[in-house]
Structure formats: structure tokens, C-alpha cells
Specification:
With 251 residues, the protein is α/β, with parallel strands linked by helices. The chain is 36% helix and 27% strand. The two termini are 17 Å apart.
Length: 251
């Protein structure tokens, strides 16, 4: 989904100042430290004090395959890649879209789902890119949604919010004409609001991946192997069906 605001130059500088834990270090410790946002349902969110969601459950499943316990860290989205390059945790799973720009700053595992940026509006509101001309649109700050909405010809005011749920709330309260976010998150909102909002067209498609520090090839290899096993043995399909009623893997 998302794109952090930190410049690639800053990320690269951070990456040179410390040493990431290698796979051997992690395996020896018996615990892997994973970071996520915890504010992006249904992928990563809190229910009460419990951190849950599709990505949380998937990462826990992968860690179990690797024989590791999990220590979770939650950070505001814009801080996640900064913390990764400062070695505060071993990898990030937080719906980061795999982009050429990001691939210069971090290494990505194979995609763990494919999605797109969808328009969500109230009935009668803008449902297509053309219909966004002159309209006010809510998006989360620092995301690929913001980047892509700004590319829409003639779009009106683009309002940014610290959390995706804040952007959704702006739509529900009538402060904006539309919200653009992950298509699965949008479907979740449509279902929860029972006809008060509808989902329109996709503005773009993207692949989503886990991020490790640049050059941490041993950990990347293990994550890819665990994900491949999950995809092939039915574990992924079961989890995906639980959250979405369909298989969200990249085709």
C-alpha cells in the first residue's frame, strides 16, 4: 500500500551506520523481532490490546515454520523503514508496496499479497478517476495512495491524515468526497458501513512485500522459503480465506 516519506538518501545513510542481525544471529537467539503499524485493518491492527490481522497472523505463521518466537514492535507507518535501517527490528510487514524507489533503500521478500488503490465514496459520489476532478479526497500521509491521487488530472483538494482510519472517518463525516486506500480495506469498510459507502474503480495495482535491511540476504532467503511453503501447503490459502473469503496471493 504505502510509501514512507523518508528520502532514499537518508535511508541509505542510516543503513551504513549499524549492522543488521544475520539469520544466524536470529536463529541462535530463538526470537525474531518484527515491526508493523498496528493501524491498518484487516492487515495489522489492535483489537483491544491484542495485535492481530492478516499480516500479523501470516508473519507469526512464518516465524513458527522457522522455529522462532516473535517479538512485535508497532510504530507509526512513516517510522517503520527508518527503524529497520537502524536495526531496531529484523523485518517489517506493514503492507509496503514494492516500488523501484523503495528497492533502492531496502530489500523485499517475494510479495505476500497483491492489491490496488481503490476509490471509496458515499452513494452518488465519485467512482472513477475522471469523477475525482474538483473533488476533495482523503488519504493517509506517506503512502502510495497519496502519490497516485496527486497524479489524477484535475483532482481537487487532497487531504492527508496520520492514519488510514482517520482518512476513512473524514469520508464518513462528510468532510471529503472520497477516500482512496487499499481495495481490501475498502471492501472491509463497505461491509462494516452496510450501504453507507461504496467502492469504485482502482487507481493502480501493486504488489506488497515484507522488507528487510538492504543486504540481509540470509534472512531474506529464509523468509522467502517460509512464504513459499505457506503458499504451497494450504496454510496461506486458509488464512487468506479467513480474512478475505478469497485467495489474495499474487497470480
Amino acid at each position: 500500500m504505502k510509501k514512507a516519506l523518508l528520502t532514499l538518501t537518508a535511508l541509505a545513510l542510516l543503513a551504513t551506520t549499524a549492522q543488521a542481525r544475520t539469520w544466524e544471529d536470529i536463529k541462535k537467539s530463538g526470537t525474531i523481532k518484527i515491526a508493523t503499524e498496528g493501524a491498518f485493518p484487516p492487515f495489522n491492527m489492535f483489537k483491544g490490546k491484542e495485535l492481530t490481522g492478516f499480516e500479523v497472523d501470516l508473519a507469526t505463521q512464518l516465524a513458527t515454520q522457522l522455529g522462532l518466537k516473535v517479538q512485535w514492535v508497532t510504530q507509526p507507518f512513516d517510522n517503520l523503514l527508518i527503524g529497520l535501517n537502524q536495526d531496531r527490528y529484523d523485518f517489517v510487514i506493514a503492507s509496503h508496496g514494492i516500488t523501484p524507489e523503495r528497492m533502492k533503500a531496502v530489500d523485499f521478500a517475494s510479495p505476500h499479497y497483491c492489491t490496488g488503490g481503490a476509490i471509496v465514496t458515499k452513494p452518488g459520489g465519485p467512482m472513477t478517476a475522471d469523477a475525482l476532478k474538483g473533488k476533495t479526497v482523503a488519504v493517509q500521509v506517506g503512502t502510495t495512495y497519496l502519490e497516485n491521487v496527486r497524479k489524477v488530472p484535475g483532482v481537487g483538494d487532497v487531504k492527508t491524515f496520520p492514519k488510514d482510519t482517520d482518512a476513512q472517518a473524514a469520508l464518513m463525516s462528510g468532510r471529503v468526497d472520497a477516500w482512496v486506500g487499499d481495495k481490501f480495506t475498502g471492501l472491509d469498510l463497505v461491509k462494516a458501513q452496510k450501504g453507507k459507502v461504496v467502492q469504485g474503480a482502482l487507481l493502480f495495482n501493486e504488489r506488497i512485500g515484507m522488507a528487510v535491511k538492504k543486504g540481509n540476504s540470509g534472512l531474506l532467503k529464509e523468509l522467502n522459503a517460509a512464504l513459499s511453503k505457506s503458499l504451497s501447503d494450504g496454510s496461506y490459502a486458509k488464512l487468506s480465506g479467513q480474512y478475505f473469503g478469497t485467495d489474495v496471493r499474487c497470480k
